[in-house]
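User: Thanks for the earlier help. One more: LUD domain-containing protein. Can you show the sequence and predicted structure together?

Assistant: Of course, both are below.
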Amino acid sequence: MTVDVQTTRERFEESLADLEVPVTRTEPTALESALEEIVREPVIGTPLEFEGVALPDWIDDAPTPATLEAATTSVTSASFGIADYGSVVLPARPDGSEQVSLFPELHVPILRESDLVPDMPTAIDRLGPVLRDGGSAILATGPSATADMGALVRGAHGPKAVHVVLLEDGETDE
């Protein structure tokens, strides 16, 4: 069965809008200029996991504890996105992508349009084998927020803001 990427992408963007999360669609060749419009210095990131796509040289992709603490923006790749929730799945990797995504005030996850899935059952089907093999991942839905102590507080357990970048790849997900 072929998933209609257009419909899935539109639902993903609607879910992100409900979370007050901006989304930027860009061709892979225009990623650097898209990031220049989004990020706030200093910026850290982790190497992107997409063939033929890399972070610009001006993004520190080998952060240390000191640069992690000083960073305002982080840029990481996401394995896939879940349209019904506007969630992104951030894989646990040896390069510290989990920490890089959580500490700075702004997180910019990057994923391909073809890596969008329509709903949570599809996401669990896709993520299940990774988890059964001992892997882990974060399902991030919008900025960090808590109301544990009364009023809503953003950034209590993660980034205060998120801006998703979708790489246009012209492929469909099956």
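User: Great, one quick takeaway?

Assistant: The helical segments are 5-18, 31-38, 65-70, 97-102, 120-132.
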